[in-house]
Amino acid sequence: MNSKLFLLCFAAFGCAAGNSMTHADTPLAPLQFLVGDWSGGGDTDAGLSRGVSSIKSDLDGHILVRRDHTIFPAAKGQPAAAMDTLMLIYPSSSDGHLHATYTDSGGHVIQYTAARVEPGRLVEFDSDASPNAPVFRLTYAAKGIKAMDVKFEMAAPGTPSVFHPVAVGILRRSAK
């Protein structure tokens, strides 16, 4: 897979978007710390990156929508590139657990089907294990109210619990 896909998941976040709030009694309420406009960067297996992201509540607080634009400078023999991404975070209609669907301008799609949440502090999304496909993990960890760490990891097929970092970065809340 293209390593730039993975960068997006952590790299940099923070566009212009509304900050409508999720309802306090929804499964998304513990993720309210994610909502906002972000900018940042990080280190990936493809080199350094920078970008912006917005995470906002939508559909009357029933989903969170993340949109990113990430810039990859020329590095490691690769030309400069950009990537746009979209991720929807939502409670499953069957069991109420949090799920997420990630897609990007490179045609990659990741279905996150499990989430570990520490309300207001951390969310860790995992994709399903499959014998022939990698497992992905995306983690957001709040650092106060103005920053958060982001880590995107992958476990090779057949080793679903042995994760290796693909991209790590820090996002800072954009000034309004």
What can you tell me about this protein's structure?
With 176 residues, this protein is mainly β. It has one domain (3-173): Lipocalin (Beta Barrel), CATH 2.40.128. Helix content is 3%, strand content 53%. The protein has a ten-stranded antiparallel β-barrel with strand order 1-2-3-4-5-6-7-8-9-10. A hairpin with a 7-residue loop joins β9 (147-155) and β10.
Work out the count of structural domains. Answer: 1
What's the CATH architecture?
Answer: Beta Barrel
Topology as a string of helices (H) and strands (E): HEEEEEEEEEE
Count of extended strands? 10
How can the largest sheet be summarized?
A: 10 strands, antiparallel, barrel
**C-alpha Rg, in Å?**
15 Å
In short:
This protein is mainly beta and 176 residues long. Helices cover 3% and strands 53% of the residues.
What labels would you give this structure?
3% helix; 53% strand; 176 residues; single chain; Lipocalin
Topology:
Elements: H1 3-8, E1 36-44, E2 47-58, E3 63-72, E4 81-91, E5 98-104, E6 109-118, E7 122-127, E8 135-142, E9 147-155, E10 163-173
Antiparallel strand pairs: 1-2, 1-10, 2-3, 3-4, 4-5, 5-6, 6-7, 7-8, 8-9, 9-10
